[in-house]
Structure formats: C-alpha cells, structure tokens
Amino acid sequence: MFACKCSDIYSSNSNRAFASTCPNPFNSMEEENPFREMAREGVPQTDEPTHVAAPKKEEQDLPKLSPQEFRIYNRMAEHMDMFHENFRQSWNLLMGACTAGKRPQGMSIRAFLSVGEQFCHHLTIHHTIEEQHIFPVLAKKMPAFKKELQLLTQHKKIHQGLDKFEEYISQCRSGEKELRLEEMKGVMETFGGVLWQHLDDEVKELRAENMRKYWSPAEMRSLPM
C-alpha cells in the first residue's frame, strides 16, 4: 500500500506543494499499481482509450514490435488516456455550457457546480499520485518526467488556474457569488490551453514507440503500473 493518501496532503482551495511529502514507494517493485490507487480514490476513467494512445508510424531504424511487445509497451499510455478522456469530457460539458450561455438541459445549478467540484478534486488527486508515485519512477530514464521539466511544469501552470476555478465554484456554491457562465468561462480559459496540451503530451510520452527507447520488455513488466 502507498505510504499516504493524496487527500491527506492537499486540502480544497489550497496552493499545491509539488514536492512529495511521502517517501518514494517504488524502491521495491512489489508496490501497488498507482492506476488502481487513482480508481480507488474515485478518479473516473472511460472504458476505452482514445486516438491519443494509438500508435503512430514507428521509427524506421527500430525493429518492428510484435503484437505482444506492443501491448506491453503501450499499456501505460492506454491506462493514462482513459483517465484523461474523462477529464476531457467533464471539461467539454463545463466549457460547452459557458460558451452556449446555458447549462445542459435538465441540469440544476447545484448539479452543474458539482461537476466542476469533482473535476477539480479528481484532477488534483490524479496529479498528486502521478507526482509521488509515477513520475519519479519514469524520470530515472525519461527526461520529460524529471523535476521542473516539461510535464511537471505543465502541472504547475494547470494548478495556478485550477485553484482559482475551484475557489470560484466554492463561492458560487456558498452563495457568496452568483454563477455567471461568462465569468466562469474566463477562469477556465486561464488554464485550458495548457491542460489540453498536457493531457495529450503525457499520453504521447507513454506510447509504445517512445517507451521502447528507454525500457526493455522485462523492465516494462516490472514497472508497478
């Protein structure tokens, strides 16, 4: 089991500390799969990955992967993309309403705000588990997952806007503010671009044609993910 729960680390509407407060749990390869931990923490995922996790034409100077090798190398991309697709769908519901100037038909203000609350909560859990239990393992060989480089920098930029979005929703929920969809759209736009870029970039880093550059099939099987 992991040393601590992400709910013990971050509270609502607080600035996120990106340095891990838990020891790296993957000193041993016998630890639990962090994707299962995300699911247990309530982070939803779709049933199937999207085209983002699908292979692109592989490098010509690399031998072709067998179907079994491809499944081994691409499984992390597919698992990650199923979580990411749920975030895309929630974002589209929220931003679609803001752009149209009306909530989805039959959805109350309370239910609409709940979608936003869950989006913020689940994305924070997702990123916390990644930073504590996935990125440190992959960073041993893969530059994109190293501290303060591409993907962690995107996390920071996302949460600069996400914290404000969570605060806005909380104020609307409490009655401190009246929900104004145009105002909500403005808050979402402060981090939407980097969020969508990140959701794709992270999966692409985990696709088979990239993972095979850094890991052997045996190492892939031993990764606790």
UniProtKB/TrEMBL annotation:
Pfam families: Hemerythrin. InterPro entries: Dimeric_xanthone_biosynth (IPR053206), Hemerythrin-like (IPR012312). Residues 77-205 form the Hemerythrin-like domain. Gene3D superfamilies: nmb1532 protein domain like. It comes from the Eukaryota. Residues 42-61 are annotated as: Disordered. This is Hemerythrin-like domain-containing protein. It comes from Hortaea werneckii EXF-2000. The lineage of its organism: Eukaryota, Fungi, Dikarya, Ascomycota, Pezizomycotina.
